[in-house]
Amino acid sequence: MTAVSTGIVLGAVDEIPPGEGRAYQVGGRTIAVFRLRSGALRAFPGVCPHAGGPLADAQTDENVLICPLHLNTWDLATGCSRSGQPDLEVVRVHEAEGQIMIQI
Amino acid sequence: MKRRLVLIGNGMAAARTVEEILERGGGDLFEITMFGDEPYGNYNRIMLSQVLSGEEDESGIFLNDLSWYEENGISLRAPVRITRIDRFAKLVYGDDGSSTPYDILVVATGSRSFVPPMQGIYREDGNLTPGVLGFRSIDDTREIVRLAGQHRRAVVIGGGLLGLEAARGLQSHGVQVEVLHAAGHLMNQQLDAPGGAILKSSIEALGITVRLNARAVALRGEHHVEAVQLDDGTEIEADLVVLAAGIRPNVDVAVTSGFTVERAIVVDDRMGTADDPDVFAVGECAQHRGEVYGLVAPIWEQARVLADHLTGARPDARYHGSRTTTKLKVAGVDVASMGITAPERDDDEFVVFSEPRRGVYKSVIIRDDRLIGATLIGDVKKAAFLIQAFDRGLALPEERVGLLFDLGATSAEPSVADLPDEVQVCNCNGVSKCTLVKTVQEGEKTVSGVMDKTKAGKGCGSCKSLVRQIVEWAAGDEVQADPAEHYYVPGIPLAKPELMSRIREQRLYSVSAVFAALAPGGNEDAKSKMGLTSLLRTMWPQDFVDERDGRFINDRVHANIQRDGTFSVVPQMKGGVTSVDQLRTIADVAEKYQVPMIKLTGGQRIDLLGIPKEDLPKVWADLDMPSGYAYGKSFRTVKTCVGSDFCRFGLGDSTALGVAIETRFQGIESPGKVKMAVSGCPRNCAESLVKDIGIVAVEGGRWEIYVGGAAGAHIRKGDLLTTVDTPEEVLTISGRFLQYYRENAKWLERTYAFVPRLGLDHIRAEMEKDAAGLDERMQQTVEGYRDPWKEGREPAVPGQFRTSLPLISLPQVPVRDGSTALGGRAGRSTTADPRLPIPEGR
């Protein structure tokens, strides 16, 4: 079977200030996209699996994101929890001509 | 190309140095060769006593086995003894005839048992007489165990730590043991005479004979030792003699190779030898500022500094010497000691407690209100506190006996060992004692590491000291101090004063500039951003470059995030005084936005809860009131009583002063939140005694200023800082204290911890010393104030107030208007009328 993935443009990269995250609604899902200070983009489901925290409001560095509600941390590269919570699904995301593009 | 790093030595100091080097990426910089005297990997020499006593087997004490060398590309040459260093040709010569070139050489030859000058101790061939052994290596230990099986009477020469451990180990093999000690009391390096005497009775109670002032001068026995002779002619029969009369650094190779050697190889603060910039020495064979260390903690520190220096991770790393403290079990008896063992000056305070029957002895020596020495035997519960007080020069309790015993806490308070496994230690994050213990057993030996992994102590923080005790208890001697505990933020390896001076020198105005200049590898650290933002705002009230990702969400949108992702809005209501207009506006706004809950806060303000992020700017615009700062690590509110205007007891105008204070300090960020109160008389209806800064009007038109109070997760009555005559002085002095707190407290350290940590007298003196400077810097901060809610009109960054929540209807938190009285998430909600008889609990 061929895996089907769809590229979806969410908006301009400039909509996210460096180091911050923003939430986007995609087909009934909420996706949190982070623009790291290095310029890299990262994307995950927008809701923390521990207590439903809004992950787009997280603080980040190049390696982890910290949920604003209970300060749980996840690895930005793998989505793995670093504080004993369920892992996050990694959403593939790229910058394409100044636009944020995810693949689902 | 890799440089050739050669280590002479394969013991604990050498291995630790290599580990530290590898940790700093040194594997890519160096081709590492280690020369070992013993044909093994490296092992924990401290554990040899346990091997001797049979509590641990040999394999359990290896720090790194042979595969470690292979995995890390280290070439181990053992057993090879280096006999000479040619530092001009940069070669080391081994007793196997080899010569090995180096670029960098580290001498870590350690030390050996001191062999006291005694007649008959050596045979003619220069070896020790059979039956006479040192107690220093795994081979020594094996041999002692072997001989213990064959012999009946052993003498241990030396009643220090090692000698007593050897005696205890021998005894466990069924050998009759006598300890000969040349000094007048046991462990005279660490203990005073009465302490030594109590230790002696505890040791004797184990069935070990102790003979003090016993100078062994000769051994009798031709082919095998038969007896030890003392200087008074006494002869003690023995078929096994263990030498534990101290150690001597192994410096022969350094001496013959022309290095400066006094008691040991002389090194500078980088652990470099005095004679050659490419040759270093570390561990028991090194002498730093006149001191030779034989304990593990200072040697670990030396290894770190050397690794920092060699790898270039921190070229400016310096070793400044160590204050040695020990806490250990000697032959089953708990002993802790630090600093000097007996008072030296007439005005030294000496506090002693002695209970020989239980084998308990405690003494402390205090000079100028600082702990300079302590000895604990048999009961070391206070050791952790004393070691801290000693290391950091903490202020000491007025009641000196509190240094020796936990006062106030009744004996009903259980020790951590007695706590049941399943007891919940951290009530915020639901962490039990067994989870903590398991985390320690899985290899996490630092308190902060265990807290990170389990999240224990990461809620309100009130369980931190219990968490610390449990980790220390579970890790035992292996507990490791985490240097990061002293950092201001975890991502930058500097304490606050050093961090501030670097920021000032290098003029770092933004969080990203601080990371780039001061973080290891220039790496950002999410957990450090908020603390750095706060510090930079404090340091550069005008020049700070604001980066929004450096802020926590609350500070990005100037409201407090709630469990459902909405926010709470608390408008400013200075001193808790409001008006008809304000109340009407608040009511209108609450109605317009269908605010699910309106509640009074603990600080006498009105809280509108459940506001979606995207509505914040509109809510602020409609309120047209400034922010009440109910969300930040900042100055919060001033609670007041009605004071002299209406109250028939009021002595001072507390509301007017409260309003003035709030006007002056509104929005000022600080290491932790700052709650204030002003009470109009000593009845103290505004609870000033349990505030970070609390003011109380007293008879005679004067005002008392209390600092360091708390009544949240921690309860503490504030300390009276001073009493002043005018409201203006209240503003000046409390501003001065606030600024001092901002500049000196650790990140998230509330005043209730800060004030006792530094001591009130110290704080007073420092405030006095820099009064003008503190006042000026506070004034600049006050002038820099700008109401953050004005940002609602013009967002600071794109999408500042865009929702982060999924598209489902809000709020998830139920609307509550006061008609349902009971409920909440912790317990079951009840819809029953609370006035009815309460049903029996099920």
TrEMBL record, chain A:
Gene Ontology molecular function terms on file: 2 iron, 2 sulfur cluster binding; metal ion binding; monooxygenase activity; oxidoreductase activity, acting on paired donors, with incorporation or reduction of molecular oxygen
Residues covered by the Rieske domain: 8-102
Pfam families: Rieske
InterPro entries named in the record: Rieske_2Fe-2S, Rieske_2Fe-2S_sf
Keywords from the named record: 2Fe-2S, Iron, Iron-sulfur, Metal-binding
UniProt-listed SUPFAM superfamilies: ISP domain
Stretch forming the signal peptide: none
Domain of life: Bacteria
Presence of the UniProt keyword Membrane in the record: no
Protein name (database record): Rieske (2Fe-2S) protein
Organismal lineage: Bacteria, Bacillati, Actinomycetota, Actinomycetes, Kineosporiales
TrEMBL record, chain B:
Functional summary from the UniProt entry: Catalyzes the reduction of sulfite to sulfide, a step in the biosynthesis of sulfur-containing amino acids and cofactors.
Pfam families, per the entry: Fer2_BFD, NIR_SIR, NIR_SIR_ferr, Pyr_redox_2, Rubredoxin_C
Organism field: Kineosporia babensis
Co-factor remark: Binds 1 [4Fe-4S] cluster per subunit. Binds 1 siroheme per subunit.
Domain FAD/NAD(P)-binding: 4-289
Family, similarity comment: Belongs to the nitrite and sulfite reductase 4Fe-4S domain family.
Biological process, per Gene Ontology: nitrate assimilation
PANTHER family in alphabetical order: NITRITE REDUCTASE (NADH) LARGE SUBUNIT
Catalysed reaction, written as an equation: hydrogen sulfide + 6 oxidized [2Fe-2S]-[ferredoxin] + 3 H2O = sulfite + 6 reduced [2Fe-2S]-[ferredoxin] + 7 H(+)
Alphabetized PROSITE patterns for the sequence: NIR_SIR (PS00365)
Domain Nitrite/Sulfite reductase ferredoxin-like, chain residue ranges per copy: 561-624
Keywords, in A-Z order: 2Fe-2S, 4Fe-4S, FAD, Flavoprotein, Heme, Iron, Iron-sulfur, Metal-binding, Nitrate assimilation, Oxidoreductase, Thioether bond
Binding site for siroheme: 685
Name the UniProt record assigns to this protein: assimilatory sulfite reductase (ferredoxin)
Domain NADH-rubredoxin oxidoreductase C-terminal: 326-389
A GO MF term: flavin adenine dinucleotide binding
Gene3D superfamilies noted in UniProt: 3.30.390.30, 3.90.480.20, BFD-like [2Fe-2S]-binding domain, FAD/NAD(P)-binding domain, Sulfite Reductase Hemoprotein, domain 1
Disordered: region residues: 814-842
Boundaries of every Nitrite/sulphite reductase 4Fe-4S domain copy: 632-770
UniProt keyword annotation of Cytoplasm present: no
Names of required cofactors: [4Fe-4S] cluster; FAD; siroheme; [2Fe-2S] cluster
Presence of keyword Magnesium: no
Positions of the BFD-like [2Fe-2S]-binding domain: 425-472
